[in-house]
Design a protein that fits this description.
mainly alpha, globular
C-alpha cells in the first residue's frame, strides 16, 4: 500500500515536472493554466500506476504518456496538433536526457546499480526520480525567470478556423521533428528494457539536438516575419 502511494505521489510530481519543462521550453503559460495542468498530472500518475502495476504493461506506459501529453496540449490548452506533437516530443526527450544523466551519475557513485532503471520502486529509483524532478523544476524556474526558451509558438488557444499551410518549409520541419521525437520515444522501449543506457542517451541527445535546431529555426523565421511585417507597415504609412 505504501509503495503504491509513493509511486502515485512521485508519478504526479514527475508528470508535473515533465509538462512544466515542455511549456517553459516554449514559453507557454503554466501558472495561468495551473488547474488543467494539475488535473493532467494527477491523471498521468494514475494512468502510469494502472499500466505498470495493475495491468502489467510497463512497456507501453511512456509512449502512451507522450500521446496523452499531445492530446492535453491540443484539447486542454488549445495548441495546434503538429505544434503540440513537436513541443511534447522535444520537452520529453529533454526530460529523458535529464533522467539518464542523473542515472549515470547515480550509477557512477554507487547509488544505483546497472539495470535499476527498469525497476518501478526501490530507494535507488526514488533518488533518481526526486533528483530529476527537482532539477526539472529548477531548470523551468530559471527559464521562466530569465525568459529563456523558444517563442515561435503563439500563446494558446490557437485559431483553428484559420487555414494552415502545412507544406511551408518551416511547418515541414516541425512535422519531421515530431515524427523523429515520436520514433525516438518508441525506440526507447527496446533500449530501456535491454539496459542499453548509452545507446538510449545517444539517440535521445541526437533527437533533442534536432528539435533544438528546428526550434531555433522557428524563432528565426518568426523574428524575420515580424521584421518584414514592420517594414511593410512603415512603407504603407509613409506612402
Amino acid at each position: 500500500m505504501l509503495s503504491a502511494f509513493l509511486y502515485i505521489l512521485l508519478g504526479f510530481f514527475d508528470a508535473l515536472a515533465a509538462v512544466t519543462l515542455v511549456l517553459k521550453l516554449y514559453m507557454l503559460p503554466v501558472w495561468e493554466k495551473r488547474r488543467k495542468i494539475l488535473f493532467y498530472a494527477i491523471g498521468i500518475a494514475l494512468f502510469s500506476f494502472l499500466m505498470r502495476e495493475v495491468i502489467g504493461m510497463p512497456k507501453f506506459d511512456f509512449p502512451l504518456q507522450y500521446l496523452l501529453m499531445v492530446l492535453f496540449l491540443r484539447f486542454g490548452l488549445g495548441i495546434k496538433t503538429y505544434l503540440a506533437a513537436f513541443s511534447a516530443g522535444s520537452g520529453l526527450t529533454a526530460y529523458i536526457n535529464l533522467q539518464l544523466f542523473v542515472y549515470i551519475f547515480a550509477n557512477f557513485f554507487g547509488v544505483a546499480q546497472p539495470g535499476v532503471i527498469n525497476n518501478t520502486s526501490g530507494s535507488s529509483i526514488y533518488v533518481i526520480q526526486l533528483v530529476s524532478i527537482f532539477t526539472a523544476y529548477f531548470i523551468s524556474f530559471v527559464m521562466g525567470k530569465y525568459n529563456f526558451g523558444f517563442s515561435f509558438i503563439i500563446q494558446p488557444p490557437h485559431d483553428f478556423l484559420k487555414g494552415e499551410n502545412y507544406l511551408s518549409s518551416l511547418n515541414k520541419l516541425f512535422i519531421i521533428g515530431s515524427l523523429i521525437s515520436c520514433t525516438t520515444i518508441f525506440v526507447t522501449l527496446y533500449m530501456l528494457y535491454n539496459s542499453n543506457t548509452i545507446g538510449l542517451l545517444s539517440i535521445s541527445l541526437l533527437t533533442f539536438g534536432i528539435s533544438y535546431f528546428f526550434s531555433e529555426k522557428g524563432d528565426y523565421e518568426d523574428a524575420r516575419s515580424a521584421i518584414e511585417a514592420h517594414r511593410i507597415r512603415n512603407k504603407e504609412s509613409g506612402s
